[in-house]
Amino acid sequence: MDFFNLFCLSWLDLLFFLAIGGVIYMKKRSNKAKRAKNGDFKGKKILITGGTSGIGKALAEKFSKLGANVIITGRDDKKLQEVSKTIDKCEGYVLDMENPEEVEKWCENNTKNLGTLDAVIHNAGLSMRDLFMNTEIKLGQRLLNVDFLSIFAMIQGLMGNMRTDEQGSVICGIGSLAGVSGAGVRSMYSAIKGANDAFFKCLACEIRDKNIHSMIVHPGYIQTNVSQNALVGDGQKSFGKTDSNIKNGLPVEDCVNQIIDSIVLRKTEVWVCKGFGMKILMFISKIFPSFLDYGLYKNLNQQLSALKKAS
Ligand SMILES: NC(=O)c1ccc[n+]([C@@H]2O[C@H](COP(=O)([O-])OP(=O)(O)OC[C@H]3O[C@@H](n4cnc5c(N)ncnc54)[C@H](OP(=O)(O)O)[C@@H]3O)[C@@H](O)[C@H]2O)c1
Asked: Which parts pass through the membrane (predicted)?
């Protein structure tokens, strides 16, 4: 007995059910899209680390426009004051993330002031631009502290501040597509961002019962100062230039719109980049890992030429 006889179905019945399924799916998608566009953050309290430049600053500006009370952090008090002055309902807190133990203390000292948080976006981060053979352990240690251990410490330290009522809250990591696929001249950075990817997923299952949603956003090339500030060699110096990949990347405003929509929709893992090409390549490489090996080998020349064209 074949499938159709077993369930007394014809091809037409099957097509009918598929069409109904398609309509329901499209309807749900369009509701979701509407919900994202109309995301209302009035009165919500949102903490964004690294809110003094690039993605963090643009997130703070956008959340404030959507009605949120925004808290931003950064290392430089002067820069923090300058930025928070330009954003409505924005407060700046000095926080250096080089030392995870200091981050633990910062959380203890500020628990009361911060109050109940609706979302924390762990955005502060440092990148690198150097070949594996030129990358010293010291650089790795700095990246590990800023890009992973301090985030870990901060999430533990602020867990008691997260909203756990029926509205719930969101803990959002900012990873990198380099942490999903790997990338030339960013070996240590990619490894640490990959650790974030796994960490935010582990966290999700442990805090789900508390109505706290853990998610990670992986940006591709976004037009910010990330490569200017990226470390080289022993981690004491910055690259100091904008490489051409970043220069031609996605405008930061488009990036934050996608991040905010994905927070509204409580997505789990989000890839944010210019066009579909990179996403399709990443998707194919998940299915055919050897394609990824070859792609990254080819991409290395492109990365090196982007560094040469840096200005
Ligand atoms: N732009 C991209 O193409 C791209 C791609 C993938 C992932 N990302 C990720 O996106 C996040 C934001 O980067 P961005 O592109 O906006 O770069 P950015 O313009 O360089 O901003 C980095 C932010 O992190 C803060 N920060 C750096 N080191 C810190 C430290 N030791 N302690 C505390 N804060 C520190 C900086 O604040 P202060 O200097 O004021 O302290 C600044 O606000 C990072 O996690 C980055 O890895 C960016």
From this structure: 6-26
